[in-house]
Design a protein that fits this description.
Elements: E1 16-17, E2 31-34, E3 37-41, E4 44-47, E5 50-53, H1 59-75, H2 77-81, H3 87-102, H4 113-131, E6 134-135, E7 142-143, H5 147-153, H6 159-175, H7 182-188, H8 203-213, H9 221-226
């Protein structure tokens, strides 16, 4: 069922819509009617496995990804705690089963320090299950591994670093799309008007900060992404 009046085609199979705004009243639930179709406005909804909010906040998405990761970890907890499996095999299970669930869609995340800390807490919890407790040499009691000890035992890139790597790879892909593509326009073009209040950290801000970590401070990330050799 579709309405093509005024050149507008409406897909009646889609029954929800969202308005992203800093206005607290923008997310109030009410319906919008077009012809005989009613579309309910939601404050939060899941689209293609990603949690979207009317405030355009990444916090709910991180919570949702962590929740899914906990469920996945719980389903294989007996294997992660088993003494019959090697630590290397458990790490492979983590990287092939749990990690993809948590990092679904991470290429579009705009992380703050709080979200990075939340991801690291989740990852350390999984590592403590994999590597198990340690016997204290002084007291003889069993205790959890400290963060520094986990850093020594796990030699692969951590979840936050994997996220940054995927975002930079996606940034290169977007930069090579060209100016005619919608995704490129959303990232590059500047909207009219002024921002109200303190600006939030943008996805592009994350890319620039990640480039600083690899020694590319102050460089144009779009030009850099198009340089295949570099």
């Amino acid at each position: 069922m579709a309405s093509k009046e005024f050149g507008l085609e409406v897909n009646a199979d889609k029954t929800k819509h969202m308005v992203m705004s800093r206005d607290q009243n923008a997310g109030q639930s009410h319906s919008t009617k077009i012809d005989n179709s009613s579309f309910e406005r939601w404050k939060e909804l899941t689209y293609l496995g990603t949690t979207l909010t009317n405030q355009n906040s990444i916090q709910e998405e991180i919570k949702s990804r962590s929740k899914s990761g906990n469920a996945c970890c719980h389903s294989v907890q007996n294997l992660l705690s088993s003494r019959l499996l090697s630590k290397n095999l458990k790490i492979k299970m983590y990287r092939t089963i749990i990690l993809p669930v948590v990092l679904h869609g991470c290429e579009t995340w705009s992380l703050t320090l709080r979200e990075e800390r939340r991801l690291r807490v989740f990852e350390n919890r999984v590592f403590r299950r994999i590597f198990g407790p340690k016997r204290d040499e002084v007291t003889g009691e069993w205790r959890k591994l400290h963060k520094e000890e986990l850093n020594y035992l796990y030699c692969s890139p951590y979840m936050v670093r994997v996220t940054k790597s995927r975002k930079m790879r996606w940034a290169r892909h977007v930069a090579c799309m060209g100016e005619g593509r919608g995704v490129y326009k959303v990232l590059v073009e500047k909207p009219e008007g002024k921002r109200a209040g303190r600006p939030k950290r943008r996805w592009e801000d994350n890319i620039k900060m990640d480039l600083q970590e690899v020694g590319c401070r102050g460089m144009d990330w779009i030009k850099l992404a198009k340089d295949r050799d570099r």
